[in-house]
Every structure is written in structure tokens, then in C-alpha cells.
Amino acid sequence: MSSTAARTQSQPELKRVIGPKLLLLFVIGDILGTGAYALTGQVAAEVGGAAWLPFLVAFAVATVTAFSYLELVTKYPQAAGAALYVHKAFGIHFVSFLVCFVVMSSGITSASAASRAFAANLVAGFGLDPGDGGLVLIAVAFMLLVMAVNFRGVSESVRLNVVLTLVELSGLLLVIMIGMWAIAGGDADFSRVVAFETPQDKSALLAVSTATSLAFFAMVGFEDSVNMAEETREPSRTFPRVLLTGLGITAVVYVLVSICAVAIVPIGQLAGNETPLVTVVQTAAPDFPISDLIPFISMFAVANTALINMMMASRLLYGMSRQGVLPSFLSAVHPFRRTPWIAIVFTTAISLALIAYVSLAPDSSVVAVLGGTTSLLLLSVFAVVNVTVLVLRRDPVAHQHFHAGPVLPVVGAVACAYLVLPWTSGRAGQQYEIAGILLVLGVALWALTRFGSRSVREAADAERH
């Protein structure tokens, strides 16, 4: 037995404290957030009043992929998610590393998008006008604050997660209620909901594909829930109904929010709007005092998204360093705070670089570019997971588990690949540039570690001989 395996077996198991209700709140809270609060306007810019359609398609693709995840998580009820499944299926360390690094990168791009959304909502909430440069500075300051909180150590208790989820959900339900009230009172144009408008350079299919690729940013927390398997009671029984129920609830919320938004606010005002829900509530109920709270609820929701994703990214980087697939300095733990401070600083530096890089292009939406890059990375992982479930069918286990059937994984793999490829998804080239830069960075770190450890071994062998 290897020393790594021996250490793993000597460690106690994680405490299984999460039941169905708490897991459901975790799933809902992880999916709600920046996607609804910041990207509704960007989606509307692609398809007009039919902004609800891309969200519906995105959830349909996610649900098909959820069946593959459910087979894998009930078959192998362990933390680590996609990287674990890929390693079991193919046994190639480099491929497993790439999947893990892509998941980590999606967390960084998601947090970077959330930082810009936070800045936009802060400006709207306080009625400021700092210009593009000021927004960038606020986003950078926010990420530094997230780094400080991450470094200090953040309680991840289930009680705190419940509170954060309820705040996020309450803000979206408030938008829906005010929107329905305006629609019922005749203060909205419901005909816009079915008004399908596409950019002149895109066909209807390509416009829907582009909008769906962006709407898939809402699935940023989908992978995270699988990592709770070792802390969930009876995961083989609990996960199927909870994950599918969570997807159903969040899909209804996203679709209703989109319908209310396009019915109340003209598409021209929504397109490119970085605070779309603030505009919706203030248009529907300009004299309603609660409308002043929406920017701050939005700030809270996207701040929660950013913090969770940066914690996930820094811990993944730390874990890969501990496993010897990334340079050892990334696994340094602060002696007093007991947090992976080098990994925290490193992931924050990447995030700040992304914010600066995207902000250099004045005509591009920072949230849309970074959100689209997040969905690009996630969809790539989902495509691999759908293939992995088919490969692992040859690896039977003793206990009963969920079965996705022979067709759905194939449909999921094809749909995810369709939304990844540049000639079918209609994505902006900048998204591929950012994803490529992140992958090159990951491969360079992996190669540095691999050849560095080989040199150390060769030097040690030379000394012994």
C-alpha cells in the first residue's frame, strides 16, 4: 500500500449530518445567485422577449446531465465530484488533473463575474456614478475583501448556508411578486414575452444557442452539491429526489423572473444592463419602498456566490498541491489562521488579472464574458461526465444505485458538446481565449511539478549510487 493510500485510510470519515431538507436548501442556494441577478439582461440581448427560453433549455440540459451525476454519486458516494469519476473511468492522472483544474477555474471566473455584478449593484444602491474605471476599482476591492475573509476562515455551517439561501431566494421571489402585481395591474406588456428578436448576424438557432450558453452560468453551483456526498445521510437514496427537486424549483424561479423582467422592462433597457432586477423592480413599483433594497439583496447574493467559489477554488488548488500534482508551495498553511494562504493569494491574483484583462475591452460586458467563460468550462466538464458514466458501466458495485439509462448520457454529452463548440454555440472568441490561458497556466504548473519532482528523484538516486 502506498503512503498516500495509508494516510487516506487512517483518516476518519466525514460526519454525515446533512438530511434531505438541508441538502435541498444547499442545491437551491448554490444554483440561485449571480445568474439571475446579473445575466438576465445579457440573455435578453440575444433573444429579445423570449429570455425565459434559454434558461429553460439550460435547465433541460442540466437535468439530463443530472441523471449521469446521480448514477455516479450514488454509485461512488464520495467527495471530489467529476475528477473522481474521470479518474475511476480512465485512470490517467493528467486527465483527472485537467478536469479538476477546469472545475477550479470555473470557480475563479464565476467569482470574478460576481465581483463586477457586486460593483454594479453597489453603485445602483448608493446612486453613485464612478464610471468604468470606478467599477473596476470597486470589483478589485471586493475581491480583496473576499480574499481577506477567505484567509481568516469562514464558517461553513449548515445554519449559515440556510440563511444565505433564504436571502437569495427571498430577493428573487420579491421580484416575481412585484412583477406579477404589475402584470395583473396592466402596467406591463405581456406580448413582449413571446417577441423573439435576434441580432442581425445570427440565425434564430444560433441566437438561442448563444443565450443558452450564457444562461448555463446559472449552473455554476451544480458540481458543488455532488461534493457533499460524504456528509449526506443515505446519499444513494437522498440525492436523486433532492437534486431533481432542486433543479425543478430553481428552473421555475429563473423562468418566472425572466418573464417578469421582459414584460415590465423594454428589451432595449434590459440588454447590456448589469443590474437588470434592480431596473425591473424600480420600473414596476417606483414608489414601493422595498425597491430600494433590491440592489443590496443582489449584492448579498453575488457576494455569497463569489465567496463560496473562491473558497472552493483555493481548496481545490491546495488539494492538488497536497497530492503532488501542483507545486508544493501552493499547499502552505498559515500557522495561525490554519487556512491555505498561498492558494488563496494565488487564486485571488488570477481573479484580479481576469477582471483587469476583460475590462480592457470597453465594448464587452465583463459579467457576460466571465459568465460565458464559466459556462464554457462547466459544459466541458459535464460533457466528460456524461461520457464517463457510460465507461463506468463496466465497473459494477455491490450496493444499489441510481441508473441513468442508456440514452440520457449520450444526449447529455452531445448537448453539452454542442454548447461548447465555437461554430454551434455562438460564443465570443474572448471566452475561449480566457479558458485557454487558464488551461495553459494549469498545464505549466503541472509540468513544473512533474519535471521538478523527477529532477529531485534523479538527484537522490545519483547520491545513493
Report what the structure shows.
This protein has 465 residues and is mostly helical. The chain has one domain (17-393, 406-453): Up-down Bundle (Amino acid/polyamine transporter I). The protein is 72% helix and 0% strand. The chain has 19 helices and no strands. The protein has helices at 3-10, 20-31, 34-47, 52-75, 82-90, 93-126, 131-152, 158-184, 204-215, 222-226, 235-264, 267-270, 276-284, 294-322, 341-359, 366-391, 408-418, 422-425, 429-464. Helix 4 (52-75) runs parallel beside helix 16, helix 6 runs antiparallel to helix 14 and helix 14 packs across helix 15 (341-359).
SSE layout and pairing:
Layout: H1 3-10, H2 20-31, H3 34-47, H4 52-75, H5 82-90, H6 93-126, H7 131-152, H8 158-184, H9 204-215, H10 222-226, H11 235-264, H12 267-270, H13 276-284, H14 294-322, H15 341-359, H16 366-391, H17 408-418, H18 422-425, H19 429-464
Helix pairs in contact: 2-8, 2-11, 3-9, 4-9, 4-11, 4-16, 4-17, 5-6, 5-16, 6-7, 6-14, 6-15, 6-16, 6-19, 7-14, 7-15, 8-11, 8-13, 8-14, 11-13, 14-15, 16-17, 16-19
Number of strands: 0
Spans of at least 5 consecutive residues whose pLDDT stays below 50 are 1-14
Number of domains: 1
CATH fold-level name: Amino acid/polyamine transporter I
Mean pLDDT: 82
Taking all Cα atoms into account, the compactness measure Rg is: 22 Å
Strand content: under 5%
CATH class: Mainly Alpha
Order of helices and strands: HHHHHHHHHHHHHHHHHHH
Percentage of helical residues?
over 70%
InterPro entries: AA/rel_permease1, APC_superfamily
Protein name: APC family permease
Organism: Kineococcus glutinatus
Keywords: Cell membrane, Membrane, Transmembrane, Transmembrane helix
